Amino acid sequence: MRHLISLFDITAAELTTIIDVSHQLKTLHATGKRPALLQGLVLAMLFEKPSLRTRVSFEAGMAQLGGTALFLGQEVGWQKRESTSDFTRVLAQYADFVVCRANKHASVQELASFDAVPVINGLTDLFHPCQALADLLTMQESTSEISGKQVTFVGDGNNVAKSLALACAMSGMRFRLLGPKAYFMSNSILQKISERYPQADISQTESVSEAMASADFVYTDVWTSMGQESESKQRELDFAPFQLNQSLMKHAPSGCKVLHCLPAHRGMEITDEVIDSRDSLVIQQAGNRMHAQKGLLIWLAIEQGLLSVRNLEQHGLKLTG
Ligand code: CP
Ligand code: NVA
To answer: What pLDDT digit, counting tens, does each position of 18-52 carry?
Structure first.
């Protein structure tokens, strides 16, 4: 059974297929076409943390594809009322997919461990793979060929940064992390990426000029992620020199695009001038959460035998890769 707990769960070719299907679905959507490819299918949604984009884009995406999304509240008692084994195997009787946003990465891994229903990670402390899918789609829309391009991520080596670094390695993009050394991504994750993708070009630096000089895309995220609130004062001090403002952007080539996964803390990690600038792609990027996840759901449905390639083709869509 296929899951998307992190981008390590799929191959580079599968990633390309998902982005390509997402792009095709987005093009259809723009012409008013919403093929009911997932009619009768159900996505169950388990969220331990707040969400606007992930929650609503999955719900809207399922609706547009003719399926149903069930947002499960606290009363279902995940991790409280019964064993996770019973919980997951029962959920699998009703739902065809589960998306889960959890405090701990291990909680999502545990859901997937029963192989009862395909599990999608909707963000954990370690990874945010659905965000990286939308990021790739957005960058691809902005430049004809992403391979060989550079993303400079300014800030914390967090869940978003790690998923993006891996997505870049899978897509032939350079990834630079710019921020205080104490918040760099761990050697173990870097090693895992380079073992799987020996050509990966990832480095981390505290040097603004080094990180920004060749950036095609500059990306930032909050300094304090959900669950780290007790560290926020220290983080504000540590990250202040790395605020994405006009003076930092001057180190990047002109035309360099700006990305942020949102929600943004304006005036902290990014200024209004930068996030609202002509080069900012952030609203398009947020919109692409839905298109990218529609592509992911279609790919998963085909993998699970819930949808045929023929059915896809009948709607004018092609499965490449
Ligand atoms: N970027 C993102 O995941 O946003 P939400 O927390 O609103 O889902
Ligand atoms: N790094 C942030 C991303 C929010 C979408 C967090 O985990 O809170």
So the answer is: 999 999 999 999 999 999 999 999 999 999 999 99
Question: pLDDT category, 269, cuts 50, 70, 90?
Answer: very high
Q: Kindly report the pTM of this predicted structure.
A: 0.98
**180: exposed, middle or buried (Cβ count in 10 Å: 0-12, 13-18, 19+):** middle
Protein residues with CB under 6 Å of any ligand 1 atom? 51-54, 123, 131, 261-263
Residue spans of the domains in the chain: they are 7-127+289-314, 129-284
Specify whether 261 is catalytic. Answer: yes
Express each pLDDT in 218-243 by its tens digit: 999 999 999 999 999 999 999 999 99
Q: List, in order, residues 6 or more apart from 25 with CB less than 8 Å away.
A: 291, 294, 295, 298, 317
Distance from residue 57's CA to the centre of ligand 1 (Å): 9
Q: What are phi and psi of 261, to 5 degrees?
A: -70, -20
96 is catalytic: no
Q: Does 222 sit in the ligand 2 pocket, CB within 6 Å?
A: yes
Q: Which fold has domain 129-284?
A: Rossmann fold (3.40.50)
Of 100, 130, 168, 261, catalytic: 261
Ligand nearest to the CA of 54: 1
Q: What is the C-alpha to C-alpha distance for residues 303 and 321, in angstroms, rounded to an integer? A: 14
Ligand 1 centroid to residue 219 C-alpha, Å: 15
Give percent above pLDDT 70 in the chain. 100
Determine whether 285 is an active site residue: no
The CATH number of 7-127+289-314 is which of 3.40.50.720, 3.10.290.10, 3.40.50.450, 3.40.50.1370? 3.40.50.1370
Pocket mutation for ligand 1, best pick of 47, 48, 52 (most atoms within 8 Å of C-beta): 52
